[in-house]
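S.,

As promised, the glutamic acid run. Input:
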Amino acid sequence: MEKVYNPYEDLLTIIDSVAGMLGYEESDYSVIRYPERELKVSVPVEMDDGTIKVFEGYRVHYSTLRGPAKGGIRYHQDVNAEEVKALAGWMAFKCAVVNVPYGGGKGGVKVDPTKLSQKEINRLTRRYTAMILPIIGPEIDIPAPDVGTNADVMAVIMDTYSMFKGHSVPGVVTGKPIQLGGSLGRTEATGRGVMIATREILKKLHMEPKGTPTVIQGMGNVGSQTARLLNELGLKIIAVSDVSTGIYKEDGLNIPEILDFLSVRGTLLKDYKGEGIKFISNKELLELETVVLIPAALENQINEANANDIKAKIIVEAANGPVAVSADPILKDRGILVVPDILANSGGVVVSYFEWVQNIQSLAWEVENVNAELEKVMVKAFEEVYAKSLEKNTTLRNSAYMVALERIVNAKKVRGIFP
Ligand code: GLU
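Predicted complex:
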């Protein structure tokens, strides 16, 4: 029987394997194999037609060893406890690899937000916030956007939390609208980080960005900002996709036109009528002949089943967990380089950190400042991970996890175990 994909088991596999490579004993790192705290909530919502629906919600603090828990909130029909746990764990490693002073957390509600009205989403968000309220706060756990949520949802969380506290608490969430203390550059930050990671890996391989064939799976916030920035850098984006379809054009898609087309809420690529484009399936998109492949949607897109059919030379993980652990050795054997999610998509949480710092200090940075600081943090982390991969003669995923695990384990060592 085929093994069911469990992202949390994937996380444990990597932790155990790099801990072994670092020569750790079980008790050196066992705390980081378990989430510190998991909360499951039931979220009743009055729908527009007067009926009441109850949604499953979660918030997990995976680690608070290096600082408050930090991570997004996902609204998606496939959200489940194991997924949130894995996503929360990935946040702990992501924050450690870029060395921002956070642990890791994540939340989610099992709901298809495209099936809800704006008012229903607001009521869902308010009730979910009320249910997780005891475990969030600017010094405890700071949510942010993820798949299916955005700045508007963060505004509702911030307002709900502030109403309970009796005063405005902007630092309880990041990725907020600018008017509420959101940071300039946050919306594009994950995409900007993916662009930086792609640019840096091409540099290491002595490859020119200009004209490099690139495929992007997913046109949500991360995919579309990545497409825009890589297009500006001169890469040739030959295919992109969303939930409705993939589109392909061998000599390069008109990215500004596509982004403009998708900017209306609810618009889908299947209705795009660009010149010379070909509609392709998700499978065809992933298996295209290309140099760079950027999965920017969900987990487990590349696994044992299709890893042998991937023709890209470089995979830059813009989504969390798009390459399953089972695919890593296959890709490695086939000479395909993977820039791992915890490094490649860390730009979002890095600028979340800048936003939180600005909130604490009641400051508002210029966008140039935000982008310059992001550039510094990402390039430094990239260099550290790259150097470690050479030193240990291993994949970038293993080396990124090593850099992160060492930081987490060292924090645990100096803190000790309570009591
Ligand atoms: N959801 C994003 C991620 O997976 C951002 C998290 C944050 O900014 O806290 O990295």
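The chain has two domains: 35-172, 189-344. The chain is about 40% helix and 15% strand.

- D.
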